[in-house]
Design brief:
CATH topology of the largest domain: Rossmann fold
Largest sheet: 5 strands, mixed
Distance between the termini: 64 Å
CATH superfamily of the largest domain: Resolvase, N-terminal catalytic domain
Strand order of the largest sheet: 2-1-3-4-5
CATH architecture of the largest domain: 3-Layer(aba) Sandwich
Order of helices and strands: EHEHEHEEHHHH
Radius of gyration: 23 Å
Number of domains: 2
Mean pLDDT: 88
Number of helices: 7
Low-confidence stretches: none
Structural class: alpha/beta
Number of strands: 5
CATH class of the largest domain: Alpha Beta
Length: 184
């Protein structure tokens, strides 16, 4: 049985998720587990797909980056797939771990993908450091803190933390942080 797994990082990537589901259906995926979660977040859909696998099944994904966040993560997933007696197929790479060559290529390509990501992050850190040194990078503006006086006024009027958060479009933890911060 072909089991599909599709993932996008955010909920506003509907088209990307639909395209993955379409590609998985085109290769005969009988069951597709889909989710919208960052690769660093808990991936319940992936866990469900791995739990669903049986001996002889094939877990299929469209691209490597939709499955794993690092080479270690990839190898852990491959180990779990292998332990079930199943295989992994990555459509964009035309790669299938059912063969020895597929397993070798997966390890090599996973390492290259992780290397590329590390290089990109290194360049990003360098760019941010340069921008900070030039006074051009200040980080993101603290949106909730700009509303501190309104938060305190609403809390003072008897509104609950949740109601204040909803009214101002900020999180409850931001309301609590403002509440704890001494007034200057």
């Amino acid at each position: 049985m072909i089991i599909g797994y599709a993932r996008t990082s955010t909920a506003d990537q509907e088209a990307g998720l639909a395209a993955q589901e379409r590609d998985l259906a085109a290769v005969g995926a009988e069951k597709v587990f889909a989710e919208q979660a960052s690769s660093v977040a808990r991936r319940d859909g992936l866990e469900q797909a791995l739990d669903y696998l049986r001996e002889g099944d094939q877990l299929t994904v469209t691209k490597l980056d939709r499955l794993a966040r690092s080479i270690r993560d990839l190898m852990d997933i491959v180990e779990r797939v292998n332990a079930k007696g199943a295989s992994l197929r990555i459509l964009a790479m035309d790669l299938d771990t059912a063969s020895a060559t597929g397993k070798l290529m997966l390890g090599i390509l996973g390492s290259v993908a992780e290397f590329e990501r590390e290089i990109m992050l290194e360049r990003q850190r360098e760019g941010i450091a340069k921008a900070k040194a030039e006074g051009k990078y200040k980080g993101r503006a603290p949106t909730a803190q700009r509303q501190a006086s309104e938060v305190l006024r609403l809390l003072g009027s008897g509104m609950t933390e949740v109601a204040v958060a909803d009214a101002l479009g900020i999180s409850r933890s931001s309301v609590q942080r403002i509440k704890r911060t001494p007034v200057a």
